[in-house]
Amino acid sequence: MSNLFKYKWEMSKDYPKEKNGKTVFSCFSCGGGSTMGYKLAGFDVLGCNEIDPKMMEAYRKNHNPKYSYLEPIQDFKNRNDLPDELYNLDILDGSPPCSSFSMAGNREKDWGKEKKFREGQSLQVLDTLFFDFIDLAEKLKPKIVIAENVKGLLLGEAKSYVYKILESFDKAGYYVDYKLLNAAKMGVPQRRERVFFYAIRKDLYKGEFVDLFCRQPYLDLGFNEKEIIFKEIKSTDNDRKIPSLSVKRLWENRIDKDIDMSSTSARIDNKPNKWFNWNYIKNNNIVNTIKGDDTNILYDEFRYLSNIELKLIGSYPIDYDFCNNKVDYLVGMSVPPVMTANIAKRIYEQWLNGMEAV
């Protein structure tokens, strides 16, 4: 069984020559992971909004957007000089920064606090950015809105934010539902679970409803593509820094039943709460989520993942110019292009294809 979209591909060769005539604008665009997915599915991506200058540099270099806005979304949503094209979008796409909801972060302790998402950016309350994005949707009134976030949004007290998100979409004039998807089931060599919200403007939806009471719009997002284990993408490259001596000590004491480095640490140092984010990459396993930092060590070889392996794991194109950004950071912060491509194709087939122009 071959997967619908290739995880090893090139921008210069593999974008479809014929487009489907539908337009997208991307917010919180990072280096353009979702942008590349929409392009693979035949969409025309008009541009982006991004707060990080380094990410914007990479986005402009690789995608040559017609419109690009380097500013906080709070400023962007209040602009009165946006071009008419952005008021006639087929899809408004966004991945609001999500560290406040990640299970690897402080979660509840950080809710409502102003933080810098990374160095050089403005102070923002990260857990309200999703609502700024919905405000933008209410202003631009695209046919469809797609938003991606971490799995942690569905866990514990964070679920209250989901209800607020659904309520905000409803007030903005959209039917909305959400689904937890795993990139490993969508042709990406990575076990990456993400929540996708998909909303369609109420005046345009003519389909079925999942729940007659909640009025959730039906969209088939069931995927079961061939899973790709690490040995299928493993390279001979060793082009990244050597891990530290403390990492080497744990690696030298690993045994096959250790799930990750915290297992090794618990066994040899009686410290089960340390190193819990550090993973062993085993040949016959699917790689765990790339998180944007050096926390993955090969089990049978003492090295980090190479840059080419990171590109393949993230389904990033081989010819992508990272503009001096670290490959693991940019890949870890991005929606895998192939993941977005699969979703975009379903949206086109089930919702957009044949929809009357408005």
Structure description:
- 28% of the residues lie in helices and 15% in strands.
- The chain has 358 residues and is α/β, with parallel strands linked by helices.
- The chain has two domains: 11-228 and 334-352, Rossmann fold; 230-331, no CATH class.
- Helix 2 packs across helix 11.
- The radius of gyration is 20 Å and the shape is globular.
Helices and strands in order:
Layout: H1 11-14, E1 23-27, H2 33-40, E2 44-50, H3 53-63, E3 67-70, H4 73-76, E4 91-94, E5 114-115, E6 124-125, H5 129-140, E7 144-150, H6 159-171, E8 174-182, E9 193-201, H7 245-252, H8 261-269, E10 279-281, E11 296-298, H9 307-313, H10 327-333, H11 337-352
Parallel strand pairs: 1-2, 1-4, 2-3, 4-7, 10-11
Antiparallel strand pairs: 5-6, 7-9, 8-9
Helix pairs in contact: 2-11
Q: How many domains make up the coordinates?
A: 2
Strand order of the largest sheet: 3-2-1-4-7-9-8
CATH superfamily of the largest domain: Vaccinia Virus protein VP39
Order of helices and strands: HEHEHEHEEEHEHEEHHEEHHH
Mean pLDDT: 90
CATH architecture of the largest domain: 3-Layer(aba) Sandwich
Q: Judging from the principal axes of the Cα atoms, what is the shape?
A: globular
The largest sheet is: 7 strands, mixed
Strand-residue fraction? 15-25%
CATH topology of the largest domain: Rossmann fold
> By helix and strand content, what is the structural category?
alpha/beta
Secondary structure: helix percent: 25-40%
Low-confidence residue ranges = 102-115
CATH class of the largest domain: Alpha Beta
Q: How far apart lie the N and C ends? A: 39 Å
Q: Report the count of strand segments.
A: 11
